[in-house]
């Protein structure tokens, strides 16, 4: 009976040992085999057989991991206390160093990120810290990647989640932003008013120029028409004078005809409203011609129309009395 119990116990131990000797390594894992407390080999994914009570298999996750950096207060270069939140993404590159070179990898990465965040943001003022997150992420990733290389890990990226200034600074920033937007609105409105005024002035100037040009062209056309009219009238008068003088020369007028025309001209002059009449200085020659004309008319008149007493024939003034009549006038 005792022998059966011993055999059953041995069989159970062998079964448990057989179960312990078969281990499965997942595709995203690597296995570190320790034999009698010493590193022996690295097991790849798949079914692995180890020696129970002799070998130990340590599974290492090779996937990318994220570590959240605890919030911390950082003083910027312009003495503003801000609260920074960040996360670190890393992945294991060497399972052996990842296990044997660092005891608590996530804690080490978190503390390292906090320390370097203080240094990086402490060198910036508040405005640069709020607008230079990409620059901070790149510098911090380079620093952490160099430090974690000996730990068998690689820092993929670092992200600044947010930077929270104090409430009073946030209120001041909001007021400043509102003032800036108001200033931009006023400037934009002023620019619009100025452009409208300039455009209106340009339009009025162009309208005035066009109006002046139109008036100038109209005046020029009127002047051209008036000049053409005067030239036409002058040419007509000149042509008429030339025709008259041509007719006179063609008719070969005598002194008697000329004297008669002269008297007709004097008659038209005397018909005016003037109280004084100025006669030409060469009146002696004129009266001589008039006297000759009177003698001619007397010689040609019939006997009944002659008068020997008063020296007048049908209202005409004879030669001797003409001079006295002209003097009376």
3D structure, described in words:
The chain starts with a helix and ends with a helix. The strands form four sheets. A three-stranded antiparallel β-sheet has the order 3-2-5. The chain is built from nine helices and ten strands. 59% of the residues lie in helices and 20% in strands. It has 329 residues and is α+β, with helices and mostly antiparallel strands.
Number of helices: 9
Q: If you average the pLDDT, what whole number results? A: 80
Write the CATH fold name of the largest domain.
Answer: Tetrahydropterin Synthase, Chain A
Task: Tell how many strands the DSSP assignment holds.
Answer: 10
Helicity level: 55-70%
Question: Rg, please?
Answer: 67 Å
How are the strands of the largest sheet arranged? 3-2-5
**End-to-end C-alpha gap:** 196 Å
Specify the CATH class of the largest domain: Alpha Beta
Shape: rod-shaped
- Indicate how many domains the architecture comprises: 3
**Would you identify the CATH architecture of the largest domain?**
2-Layer Sandwich
Largest sheet: 3 strands, antiparallel
Beta-strand portion reads 15-25%
Task: Label the structural class.
Answer: alpha+beta
What is the ordering of alpha helices and beta strands? Answer: HEEEEEEEHHHHEHHHEEH
């Amino acid at each position: 009976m005792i022998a059966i119990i011993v055999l059953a116990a041995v069989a159970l131990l062998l079964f448990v040992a057989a179960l312990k000797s078969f281990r499965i390594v997942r595709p995203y894992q690597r296995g570190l085999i320790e034999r009698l407390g010493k590193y022996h080999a690295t097991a790849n994914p798949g079914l692995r057989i180890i020696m129970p009570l002799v070998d130990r298999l340590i599974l290492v996750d090779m996937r990318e991991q994220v570590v959240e950096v605890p919030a911390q207060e950082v003083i910027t270069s312009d003495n503003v206390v801000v609260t920074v939140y960040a996360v670190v993404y890393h992945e294991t590159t060497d399972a052996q160093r990842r296990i044997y070179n660092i005891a608590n990898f996530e804690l080490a990465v978190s503390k390292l990120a906090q320390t370097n965040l203080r240094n990086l943001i402490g060198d910036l003022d508040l405005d640069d810290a709020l607008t230079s997150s990409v620059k901070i992420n790149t510098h911090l990733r380079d620093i952490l990647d160099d430090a974690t290389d000996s730990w068998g890990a690689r820092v993929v990226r670092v992200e600044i989640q947010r930077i929270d200034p104090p409430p009073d600074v946030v209120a001041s920033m909001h007021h400043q932003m509102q003032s800036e937007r108001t200033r931009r609105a006023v400037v934009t409105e002023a620019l619009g008013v100025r452009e409208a005024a300039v455009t209106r002035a340009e339009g009025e100037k162009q309208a005035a120029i066009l109006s002046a040009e139109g008036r100038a062209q109209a005046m020029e056309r009127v002047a051209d028409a008036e000049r053409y009219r005067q030239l036409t009238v002058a040419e007509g008068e000149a042509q008429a004078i030339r025709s008259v003088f041509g007719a006179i020369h063609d008719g070969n007028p005598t002194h008697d005809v000329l004297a008669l025309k002269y008297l007709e001209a004097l008659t038209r002059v005397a018909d005016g409203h003037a109280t004084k009449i100025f006669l030409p200085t060469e009146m002696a020659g004129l009266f001589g011609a008039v006297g000759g004309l009177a003698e001619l008319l007397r010689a040609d008149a019939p006997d009944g129309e002659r008068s020997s007493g008063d020296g007048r024939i049908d209202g005409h003034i004879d030669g001797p009395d003409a001079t006295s009549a002209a003097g009376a006038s």
